[in-house]
Amino acid sequence: MAAIENLKIGERTTVLSSAVSALLVLIKAAAGIMSGSVALMTSALDSFSDFIGMITSWIGFKISQRKPDEKFPYGYYKAESISALFVSLFILYAAYTLLVEGYAKLFVPPSISMPYLALAIAFVSVIFSFGLSRYLMKTGKKINSELLMANAKERMADVATTTAVFFAVAMSYLNVSYVEGAITIFISLLILKVGIFSVRDSIFALMDVSPSKKKEERARGIISNCKEIEEFDDFKLRKSGPFVFGEVTIRIREFANVDRAHEIAEKIESRIKERLSDVVSFSVHIEPFKSQKQRVVIPVIKDEGLNSVVTDNFGRAGYFLFVDIDDNSVKHFKSKVNPAKKRKSKAGLSAVHFLIREHADVLVTRKIGEIAFHTLRDHLVDIYKTEGKTAGEVLKKLLRKNLKRMSEHSKPEGYDEGRI
Q: What element of type H or E holds 326?
């Protein structure tokens, strides 16, 4: 399953990132102790919070891979959002720590030993943090992981703070006062902003927030383009960790059999999953569609309006009478020449395609072949058996619900309407 594979990719990414974070903690702390740089020690504390965050992330990905069970039938995907919330809180903690430290530095004269070591470690840390941030963001976008992208933002914040530390160490070495404290305060405020937005996104995800409007519009477009459905509503998408769940209610014509309805629902689900890779579940509920408006088609011999005589030969009919019905009464009618009547073979199938292009809803005919029958039903065109000589008589019986719906074709198997 693609969802589980994405979680495994996230797990491997957090293992690598945890190792890098642990290395940065050790070298910053060692360099800070040896050089006496409080800024480096603060940066080491910041990296330690990154390390804790990555461990938390690893736990989140590990838990998220557990299969749904009786207690958690929708899976453990929200464990990732919970972990993302903890990471975001660590971002806020780091920002607060740096803010307090920066304020204290405003009133302390600069003092540092082994400045070149401190500068070298700060420079190396910037390079490592920047590379790690890009790696986390790229992987996070690839697997749509809110957690990895939150960590990427935090690592980019670490790039900014470590850069500030580099300049602060340089200014301390040159005995320039206040610079280290001022830079640290400024950077901590930027980190605080990142942390607040990350906390917001994590909480929204835990509350089943809807994904972006763009994603919703794409999903709606996919459903709308399904010609077999008449309308849909109750459309919903919700985030659960790095993944999206959705549901919709579609309405199809009430005569469609269960297998056909199920086929339509499966087509919608598969298309959405195919085009929106982060959707792991999309439920399609089916309800019968009942409309007051219908386009009825009656095959007739000549164009004489409602007085047209109905023909027994569907595929070779001279004309098709199209009658628009609204609220069980005739609103408009018009005859069109049957373009298939002179075909040497497959006239019935050709006529069927013509009716489909003309948006027919109901066909009333005495006889119809197997292929034509099933093609019309596949396109959800209802079919009734003719009773009456003229189109007007047939319409009256249809509106009074006195006509019998055809459940199967009325001609022998292998019958070709084009042979008549």
A: strand 319-326
